[in-house]
Amino acid sequence: MRVGIAGYGVVGKKRYSSIVKNSSFKVTDISEVNSIARKEIPNGINVFDNYQDLILQADLDVIFISLPNKYASDAVSLSLKKGLNVFCEKPPARTLEELLQVKEIYEKHPSQKLMYGFNHRFHLSVEEAKSIIDSKIYGNVINLKGVYGKSQMISFNQTDWRTKREESGGGILLDQGIHMLDLIRYLSGEDFSKVFSFIDNAFWNFDVEDNAYVLMQSPKGVVAQLHSSATQWRHVFNLEITLQKGSLVLGGILTGSKSYGDETLRIITSNPEKDKGNPKESTKKYSEDVSWDNEIKYFSNCLANNLEIERGSIGDAIETIKLVETIYKADPEWKKKYYN
């Protein structure tokens, strides 16, 4: 299959390398507006100035979309209408309304594949935690507590569109916290209908949030807490999952910045009558980030064998964006400021 990549920034480059290593796809065309990034596009690839020309003019079967948030939904819609299979990075859109418009178009093209890059699902620690939870060896999920934070809104390799609501759609919750929300939904198997939140932008003073404090409950009574932060001076990824007979703790995650610590999974086996709050536990450490490669393998396999996208589907994307907007609107002051 002939592949195009819309956007050749940090993520676009990662996708290119992983596609070359892990699939039979052939990358033939790339669009990129930044002159410096354009110089890094490999020889022999057709280069376009913008994603519209790439989609409409190139002879493609598949497109990978690695564009700023304000272009994502339009690029997906245009690609679907052109008859392409689509892989789009998170967040899938700036708003739920934008994404529902994409869904309408997608439903008219049922033979095509559409996947969204909720990359954290493919980390080895997450995959093992999911397998343990699904086995029911420790019973059902009772609650989840997550913290995902970094020290600023814009890192060294990013541009300032992330701090502008009109372009980004939201701040740290939509940019990074969306991964943790997706994992909470994915690992628990729950959707959350009752939500309380406090949304704040008092430190960096952008018109997008730099902290989101969230408390949620599912219809089945599973409770989840989340702190998504851009004032976490020591970068943190931590998700604790309490089950009926033990706990799983995802600590650290392997990323390009290598600033979130070692990726580990702590498995805690509880016997309250004997352990008196000091249960047995074991820790598994993961030394390699294969999430990008495994995600490409998964998408490639779904295309090759005409399988339904079950990890990162349009349904996953809609439910997660819906939850993001519910969290924003659950803070009365934030809702009044940005949604009235």
Features:
14 strands; 8-stranded mixed β-sheet; alpha/beta; 340 residues; single chain
Can you list the strand order of the major beta sheet?
8-9-10-7-11-12-13-14
Q: How much strand?
A: 25-35%
> SSE order in H/E notation?
EHEHEHEHEHEHEHHEEEEEEHEHHH
Number of strands: 14
Shape: globular
Written description of the protein model:
The protein is an alpha/beta fold. Helices cover 36% and strands 25% of the residues. It is built from 12 helices and 14 strands. The chain has helices spanning 10-22, 35-38, 51-57, 69-82, 96-106, 124-135, 165-168, 172-188, 272-275, 291-304, 314-330, 332-338; strands spanning 2-6, 26-31, 46-48, 62-65, 85-89, 114-117, 141-149, 194-200, 211-217, 223-229, 236-243, 246-251, 263-269, 280-286. The strands form 2 sheets. The protein has an 8-stranded mixed β-sheet with strand order 8-9-10-7-11-12-13-14, with helices on one face. The protein has a 6-stranded parallel β-sheet with strand order 3-2-1-4-5-6, sandwiched between helices. Helix 6 (124-135) packs parallel to helix 8 and helix 8 packs across helix 11 (314-330). The chain is globular, with a radius of gyration of 20 Å. The termini are far apart.
